[in-house]
Amino acid sequence: MGRKSSVKSKEKRLKRKEEQQKILLAMSVVDKANKLTDPLEPFPVFRKFNKNGIEAELFIKRVTDLDESTKSWIFNLTKRNMQLKYEQCSWGWNDNKKMEELMDEAAWYLIAKGVDGTFLGFSHFRFDMDEGIEVLYCYELQLEPAIQRKGLGKFMMQILELVAFKNNMRKVILTILKNNHYSKFFKALNYEIDETSPIDYQDETFPYEILSKFNKRLASSTTPNVNNKKPGQSNGHPHCCSGHHHHPLMS
After folding, report:
1. Which site in 42, 81, 130, 180 is 20 to 30 Å from 228, CA atoms measured?
2. Alpha helices of the chain — where are they, by DSSP H?
3. Paired strand residues for 200
4. Cα separation of 124 and 247, whole Å?
5. Which of 209, 202, 218 shows the shortest CA–CA distance to 238?
């Protein structure tokens, strides 16, 4: 019995070591992506969008490189598009928490501007770890109401996927409020319910679902789930309120 127990103990140590090595490798991939100067540089043809009467120029910058007027527009557009949806579910809206999330130093922004300099839309994203896996996490996709449903949102999501997979992220992940009819938009782009999406129970329901799209090139290589938190929660609080991952989007 002693010998058998020793073998099992060794196997567990080896497995744990292997998992730790995978996590360290994933973290190095995320760190490398976050050191990029311009994630859009390998895709010059995606710097311009000209369709359905919209002529736009696109660029990616860290939040720390944005001027105050751009930051103000980002917050105001998010509030205009999302405040009511937040207030109609259990999350509620809080200016300070949303501003803190949007301006977190880890944030990257894909921004679309008209050729006349008018802001048209943005995506707030981050290269990050999620459940032990390296991901591009799309926190927001916000478009000015006048230019929605004209293909720009789809174009911007294609850019995020290109950037994610070019930099070896295992998936693009996002969260959508269930009361947001734009969830159909993401599902039409082949985003599926992620394994981390919380499941409703009789005594507990969640106002959101988590969607993702895998990097097919890396799909055969899996990383174990090392996060034992209850799905849909962080430190006992819904992610929308914690300032961490999982936030609702709109296209």
Report:
1. 180
2. 2-34, 68-87, 95-102, 152-166, 183-188, 239-242
3. none
4. 10
5. 209
Q: Exposed/middle/buried for 163, CB within 10 Å: 0-12, 13-18, 19+?
A: buried
Measured distance CA(147)–CA(208) in Å, rounded: 25
pLDDT in tens, 83-120: 999 999 989 999 999 999 999 999 999 999 999 999 99
Residue 185's Cα: distance from chain center in Å? 15
CA distances from 154 to 5, 28, 72, 202 (A): 55, 30, 24, 36
The token duo for 181 is 């009819």
Query: pLDDT-based confidence at 1, cuts 50/70/90?
Result: low
Contact 211, 191 (CB under 8 A): yes
* Global confidence as pTM: 0.86
pLDDT at 219: 77
Find how far residue 169's CA is from the centre of its chain.
11
> What are φ and ψ of residue 132, in 5° steps?
80, 5
Q: Residue 109: which residues within 8 A CB-CB, separation 6 or more?
A: 60, 61, 62, 63, 66, 74, 122, 123, 124, 125
Q: How far apart are CA 181 and CA 219, in angstroms?
A: 29
Which two three-digit tokens encode residue 115?
């050729």
Q: How far apart are CA 216 and CA 239, in angstroms?
A: 27
Residue with tokens 């090595």: 21
Q: Is 63 helix (H, G, I), strand (E, B) or coil?
A: helix
Coil/strand/helix, residue 203? coil
Q: Averaged over 154-160, what is the pLDDT?
A: 98
Nearest Cα neighbor of 79 from 58, 96, 59 is 96
Task: Lay out the sheet containing 119-130: strands in order across.
Answer: 48-51, 54-62, 108-114, 119-130, 133-143, 171-177, 208-214, 192-193
